[in-house]
Amino acid sequence: MATFDLEGTFKTHNLDTAPPTSTEATEEELLDYFKTMYTMRRMEITCDNEYKSRAIRGFCHLYDGQEAIATGINDAFTQEDSWITSYRCHCVALIRGGSVEKVLAELFGLQNGYTKGKGGSMHFYNKEHNFYGGQGIVGAQVPVGVGLAFANKYKTPEGEHMPVALSAYGDGAANQGQIWEAANMAALWKLPAIFCCENNSYGMGTSVERHTSNPDGDYYKMGNAIPGVKIDGMNVLSVREGMKFVKEYCASGNGPIYVEMNTYRYHGHSMSDPGTTYRSRDEIAATRSARDPIEFVKKCLIENNMKDEAELKEIEKSIRKEVQAAAKKAKSSPIPPMEELYNYVYAEDGTKEKAEKQKFIRMPQYKNSVQNA
Amino acid sequence: MNLFTAINEGMRTAMQTDPTAITFGEDVAFGGVFRCSVGLREEFGADRVFNTPLCEQGIAGFGIGYAAMGGTAIAEIQFADYIFPAFDQLVNEAAKFRYRSGNQWNCGGLTVRTPCGAVGHGGHYHSQSPEAYFTHTPGLKVVMPRGPVDAKGLLLASIRSPDPVIFMEPKVLYRAAVEDVPDEDYEIELGKGEIMRQGTDVTVVGWGGQLRVLEKACDLAEQNGISCELIDLKTLAPWDVEIVTESVMKTGKLVVSHEAPLTGGFAAEISSTIQEECFLSLEAPVQRVCGADTPFPLVFEKYYVPDDLKNFEAIKKVMNY
Ligand SMILES: Cc1ncc(C[n+]2csc(CCOP(=O)(O)OP(=O)(O)O)c2C)c(N)n1
Ligand SMILES: [Mg+2]
Q1: Please, which residues have CB within 8 angstroms of residue B249's CB and are 6 or more apart in sequence?
Q2: Cβ contacts of B272 within 8 Å, gap of 6 or more
Q3: For residue A342, what are the contacts with CB-CB under 8 A and spacing of at least 6?
Q4: CATH number at residue A264
Q5: Which CATH class is domain B194-320?
Q6: Dihedral (C-alpha) A280, A284, A285, A290: value to the nearest 10 degrees?
Q7: pLDDT digits 0-9 by tens, B251-272
Q8: How many domains in chain A?
C-alpha cells in the first residue's frame, strides 16, 4: 500500500466539495490497472496491424492513450451502473465483461463477435454488464444516457443510493445540440447522469480551440445549472477517485454532473487518418513521454518498490503473447450464416418469412444462390 | 479527372463566379474527409471556406439563414448517414421556407452536399443512401450524379438553383470514376434524365453509383441477346417521368434498381407512376431490385446490395414473363 498525491489533477465548477487530494493504492490494484491498460494498448495495436493487413475492414477508431479513463471509471463503478459511449469503444467493451477475442472477432466480421459481425468496430454491447454500447452517430448516445439515468432513478426506492448512468462523448461531440437538450432534462429531473467528455483535444482534424467557444475549451464548465469536475484522464488514480466522488454526488440524488477527462489519442482519428496533418509529431511524442497513462502506473509500481522494471517487462511480454493468441483464436471463429442478415430487424425473428419473400437471392457464386420459389 | 476533383472544380467555379458563395462543414477547411474541398481555403480565404463544429443541425440551420439573406451556402454533411441530425432543419425549415412564408422568404441558395452509398465495408453508419427520405419532401430537390462530368455540371446547376438541393455524391466513385471533364463553366439541367444506352427489350432505370452495376447487368443481358435501354435519372426530385414513360411505352418492361432498402424506396414511386402512365403498354410486372429491408450489415454487404447478377435475374424475369 502506498499513498499518492493527486494535487492539481482536479478542477471543479460550481461545487462546494471536491475529490480528494491524495489516495492510497495497493500493489494488487496497481498491477491490475497496469495489466488491463497494457492489454488494451496491445489490443489496439493489434487492431492497427490487422487493419493494415486488411483483415479488419470498415471504420475503426482506436483508444490508445485514453486507457486510464475506462480503467479508472470501471474501478469507481459497479456492474449496476450504466455506461454508454461513442464509436471509440473497443476498450470499454473489453473492460465491461469482454475479451480481446470477442472484440477482435467482431472486427473481423465473424460469428463470435459481439453482434455476429454485423456491426464491426463501433458496435459492441454487453447487457449483463450494463454496457449500452458504442454509437456511430456522434452525440447520439448522450440523450440515451439520460434515459438510462432516469430508469436508474425510477427503479431505486426513494432515499437510497441510485446506480448512475455515464454517457461518454468526445470534445467534438460536445457541440452537438442533443447534448444540451439532454443536460437540461437531466438537471430538470435531478437524474444520476454523468456527462463525461473525453477531451483528447481533437474532433477528427479540428482542435478544441477551433471548435468551441468555451473559454480554454473547458467542457466541465458547460452548465450553469449543472456543476462540473475536470479530471486528469491520464492518471488512473485521479480518474478512479474523481469518479468515486462524481458517482457519490449523483447516486445520492444531487442531480447530474459534467465531467471532463483531459486525455490524448495517439492514433489518428480513424484508420484513414495518419493523425499528423493537424498536429505535430512533437506534440504526440511529448505526450507519450510526459503523460502516458501506462508509464504512469509503471512509475507508481516501481517507485514504491512494488515491482521492478524487469518484472514489468516480463508481464508485458506475457500480455503481448495473450493478445496475439486471442487474435488468432478470434480468426478461427466461423463465418456468420447468410440467414443472419434478416435476424433482429424486428422483435419477431423475420428470418424465414423474409427469406421466402426474397424468392431468389443470387450469390456471387451461382451455386450458392438461395432459391425459395 | 475523378469525381472528387470534379466536385472540387464545380465548387471552385461556383465560388469564382459568385462572391457570396461560401462552403463549410466538418473538416472542410482541410479539404474534407474525401478531399472534395481541397485547396479552396487557400484560394478563397478562411471567411469563405471554414470548419464548423460537429453539429449537423446547426450546419443546416446556419446555411438556411445565410441563404435566406441571399447568400449561396454550400454545406457539407460529412456522410449521408449523418444527415439525420439535420433532418428537421432540412425537412421542416429549408423545404418549406418559401411555401410557409408565402414566397417572401426562401433558402434557394442552399446546397447540401453529402457522400452516400456502399463502399464495401462501411457498415451501419457509413453506407446508407437516404435519398427517398428527401424525395418525400416537397420543396427539396434531390440530385445524384453518376460520374465526374455530370457531377460538375449538376453541382453547378444545384448551387445556382433557386431551390434548396440535397446533392448526394456516391462515395464509391470519388476515386474510381475517371472522365474528361470540361474546364469551362457548364450546368446540366436538373429534372432531366439521360438515356445512357438505347435498347428495345427492357427499360432499366437507376441513378448514381448504381449505374455502374446496371451497366454490367445490361452487358450480361446483351450477351444473352436482350437489348436494354438504360436510363440515368440524375435528379430524383423532380424526376424525369417523360423519359421513363417514353421508354417503357417502347419496351413494355421496366427494372428499377437502387441500393437503399426496397420498402418505401424511390423505386416504388417510379414503379407506381409507370403503372399509372403505361398500364396498357406493360408486358410484365415492374421489377424493383434494391437493398434488403435490413440495416446495412457490415459482413453481409455483398448479399445486401442489388448487384449486377440480381439485376440480370430481374431482366431475365421480365423477358420470360
Ligand atoms: C452525427 C455525426 N456527424 C459526424 C460524424 C463523423 N465523425 C465521426 S467521429 C467525428 C469526430 C468526433 O470527435 P470527438 O467527439 O472529439 O471524439 P474523438 O474521436 O476525439 O474520440 C466525426 C466528425 C458522425 N459519426 N456522426
Ligand atoms: Mg476528441
Answers
A1: B278, B281
A2: none
A3: A350, A351, A354, A355, B292, B294
A4: 3.40.50.970
A5: alpha beta
A6: 130
A7: 999 999 999 999 999 999 999 9
A8: 1
**Could you give the ipTM of this predicted complex?**
0.77
**Beta strand B254-261 pairing with B235-237:** unpaired
**CATH entry, B3-176, from 3.30.365.10, 3.40.50.970, 2.30.30.100, 1.10.10.10:** 3.40.50.970
Residue A192 vs residues A148, A175, A242: alpha-carbon distances, Å: 9, 22, 16
Give the residue on B whose Cα is nearest the Cα of A370: B303
C-alpha cell, B262: 426496397
pLDDT tens-place string over residues A118-133: 999 999 999 999 999 9
| Domain locations along chain B | 3-176, 194-320
Residue in A269, A270, A272, A278 to alter for ligand 1 test, most ligand atoms within 8 A of Cβ:
A269
Q: Which among A137, A176, A204 has the least Cβ separation from residue B27?
A: A204
In 3-state terms, what secondary structure has residue A152?
Answer: helix
Per-residue DSSP letter, B26 = T
Q: Does B298 touch chain A (CB under 8 A)?
A: yes
- Ligand 1 lined by A219 (C-beta under 6 Å): no
Instruction: Give me the half-sphere count of Cα atoms (radius 13 Å) on the Cβ side of residue A106.
Output: 24
Q: Which of B54, B57, B128 to mutate to test the pocket of ligand 1 (most atoms within 8 A of CB)?
A: B54
Reported pTM: 0.86
Contact B225, B232 (CB under 8 A): no
What is each CA distance from B113 to B19, B116, B303, in whole angstroms? 19, 10, 28
Which residues line ion ligand 2, judged by CB < 5 Å?
A 170-171, 200, 202-203
For residue A121, the enclosing domain spans 2-371
Specify the ligand 1 atom closest to the Cα of A204: 11
A163 touches ligand 1 (CB under 6 Å): no
C-alpha cell at A122: 463501433
